[in-house]
Amino acid sequence: MRMETIPGLARRALPSYWDLAAFIIVVAVLVGIVSGSNGVAVPLPPPEAPVVDLDYWNLPYYALRTTLRMFAALAASLLFTFVYASLCAKSRRAEMVLIPILDILQSVPILGFLSFTVTFFLGLFPGRVLGAECAAVFAIFTSQAWNMAFSFYQSLRTVPKDLDEVSRGFQLTGWQKFWQLEAPFAVPGLVWNMMVSMSGGWFFVVASEAITVGDVTIKLPGIGSYLAVAIDGKRLDAVFAAILTMLVVILAYDQILFRPIVAWAAKFRVEMTASSSDPSSWVLTVFKRSKWLQTLLAPLGWSLRKIRFARLRLPAFGKMSLTPPRLVAIGIDWGWYLLITVAVVFAGWKIAEYVSTTLGWNDAYEALGLTLVTMVRVIALIALASLVWVPIGVWIGLRPHIAEYVQPIAQFLAAFPVNVLFPFVVAGIVAFHLDPDIWLSFLIVFGTQWYILFNVIAGASAFPADLKEVAANFHVKGWLWWKHVMLPGIFPYYFTGALTASGGSWNAAIVAEYVKWGDDKVTAHGIGAFIAKATEAGDFPRIVLGVAMMSIFVTLLNRFGWRRLFAIAERRLRLD
Amino acid sequence: MATVNAATLLDVHHVRQRYRNASGEEGSLVLDDISIKLIEGEIVGLLGRSGCGKSSLLRIVSGLNRPSEGDVSFLGTPVNGAVDGVAMVFQSFALFPWMSVLANVELGLKVQGVPDDEARRRALSAIDLIGLDGFESAYPKELSGGMRQRVGFARALVVNPKILLMDEPFSALDVLTAETLRTDLLDLWCEGRMPIKSILMVTHNIEEAVLMCDRIIVLSSNPGRIAAEIRVNLAHPRNRLDPEFRQLVNEIYARMTARPVQKEPARDGAFPGLGLGMALPSVSTNSLAGLMETLAMKPFDGHAGLPALAEETGMEVDELFPIAETLQLMRFAEMGDGQIHLSEAGQRFVNADVDVRKKLFGDHLLSYVPLATRIRRVLDERPTHRAPLNRFLSELEDYMSDDYADATLDAVTNWGRYGEIFAYDETAQIFSLEDPT
After folding, report:
1. Same CATH fold assignment for domains B8-257 and B285-432
2. Coil/strand/helix, residue B73
3. Would you list the domain boundaries of chain B?
4. What is the rounded CA–CA span in Å between residue A13 and residue A11?
5. pTM for the whole thing?
6. Range of the domain at A555
7. Residues B147-179: pLDDT tens digits?
8. What pLDDT is stored for residue A3 in this prediction?
9. CATH number at B285-432
């Protein structure tokens, strides 16, 4: 396990006008979707909802449906990644707008999207289950695509110069260069991000298969709906069965799909030393050694190779030798700026118009206050989780034989959609009359704390032996040891974990601050509950307000908090 | 040589190249008025130190970059973009790590749409020729540096180029490996077993140039100009110990240390006399002190020929020259005619203890390095005695590319810290006069 760069962080830290423009555009698109489909939504007859049956024997089928949804979303994310990131990397003008938009999209709480997109897709396929399916896949897609696109974009921008020169020297076409150089170079980062995306996706499957927007309730056959029905009926046994099924499915795709891919992706690393700890996978080994499978797949490999070497010329990415004269280029630039400005102003006006029809300043102040509450909650709980898991992670990381067993478990826990466990907590809170503002808070880091644990373990395992020996030799112990030896050593790793955890926690707030168990509802104060309640009520202006407010906070926190820390980690605390 | 014109493969005609910064504006010259003709059957070496633009020139010749002015033609047709018939070997090998040796070699053929079996046959014969038998299915990371560069050669040769361009192909290899590869390549060349008609190579290693080339073009630095053209008429295989060989090496050393005669008027126009536009190499104070000490000791006793000094210290020209030049800039040594001479101040430095050395170094730094003088003056003038790094960086970027500005400021920062003429806080990126407490 190595530290991977976090997409998007290595760039400038301060928010710029571009970010503001991107933010306005993103929100305006949301508003557009909502107001476009608003009228359609109400008279729409709810699609003939297939009944979700709590019989255990249905679980394998539901698991299959859910998994298919996940992979459909993953395929869409890949396609999006290739197109969007390539466009950003090849066109300076597109990059100016698209990258800040991606940045904002990454900070938008995706669960808040759910209500918009469900409405939109139901409107697209009136009265048919297909609309709901698309909405669910799209919800998963929005949780997977952004970081993959960022990773791919950064790989495209950092393709080694000498390999680029070789490709140009041999006159590879844009198409050939993409498959021979750019895509392979991006594989390790992309695979890692795909795995993170997949883990995140489970969380959204559970949330998106059974959703209520206003008076429309949709339940698609899948584990998520099964669970929702089980919770509604307070059937503990069914909840357990669903959780067990999910465990099996996650283990299965990890072994059958991701481990082989990771093992295969190792060969795309641009490092010129043979590493002793290359990841291995029994599936890949079987695959490589089985003559039978090889023969079966040979024609496929052959045609793929033909496609990759086809002398296709991608029109826009072909030779850049036709550079227009300087004055013309400046002219086009200004035209482009003007166009963006007009679009942003128009978008801003539309948002103001939409939100101000039903909402006043008081609602804005309320949302602001609630976001602050949620922010305090997120920061406090990440800090608390760090206090607990950093010492434990270091202890484990320094003992390789234990780390070997704990590391996969921690990674697995990070992939597990903890929102399925929330009902138990609610039952507890109701039974013991606990304060939801305090006890619901823990749910926020329930699923995300594992990122901190497994990154810290990785950091402590990678801590150089000679530095450990120096510390022992000079009798550095106790607090001094933590302060001067171990904490700086694991900081970059801890940082990666804490950042991922923080991002996930904001999203979790939407489901964690407002939880149901049968008819019992428990609410904490916070923007998450604000959004969740508005979703349930189908109050679109409030959802827009809540999502926008949360996005602003997450963006600012990323820029002013995390990126500063990242810069320090990069400059001072790198051990290689 | 009656048919000189007919056999001209490559014609570089009055090429100029300028720095280009991130926003695409053009700055000062990298290459100035370069004209070279490459004729069939010769190996031509471009010899110069780092920063003389020799690699830029190679990329212009190959069509990867375009010159700001002037043009290049290959077999009479102007070069606009990469051309068939020119292949390049890279210093860093530039192998695709995810492709096997065979796939790396086949790449150029596949891209052209050569049928699979023919591509396989040609690749295997190139691999055979270059001595890579048995490694076809290996991946680059499993190979040693020498073997990797052999893949680089095979990949270049398999497309049957007329001209082979080599960008310091041996400088990333250890001494023994480099020598083996050079000899193997020369053998193939002399026996005419390669398809290529001519080789153009970039190097900073004088002996390598004399060993391999029929013609050596010496480039001066900042901007790169043709300083001299030297014909090597020794027969292959050449012997490094041959007196004629040694004579040539010494001659080239002398050429490369010859002081530039004319003052360049335009380059430091904005700050007359300050000389801020001087790009400085990142040389550590330890290397400076070490070279002075070596010079002061026997057998040199304060005076050495550069080839002998290079041999004694085990350094290559590229490493030795920047140190020697910095010493010259700070008046700790005198250089010229391939010789270096420790100055009186240099002698004092060698004999002094640590504190006196630092004081002496600081004094010379302030007197002879304009950028150091400037930083110190700004700090003295400001009431807070603090100034951000970026202030000086942007000033430097008016004169040179970003990379050189970084390196220059980095060098002066380190020298200034050693000479204790100012302090620098890396985290805040601020120069100041106070020492950290």
Report:
1. no
2. strand
3. 8-257, 285-432
4. 6
5. 0.77
6. 359-576
7. 999 999 999 999 999 999 999 999 888 888 999
8. 37
9. 1.10.10
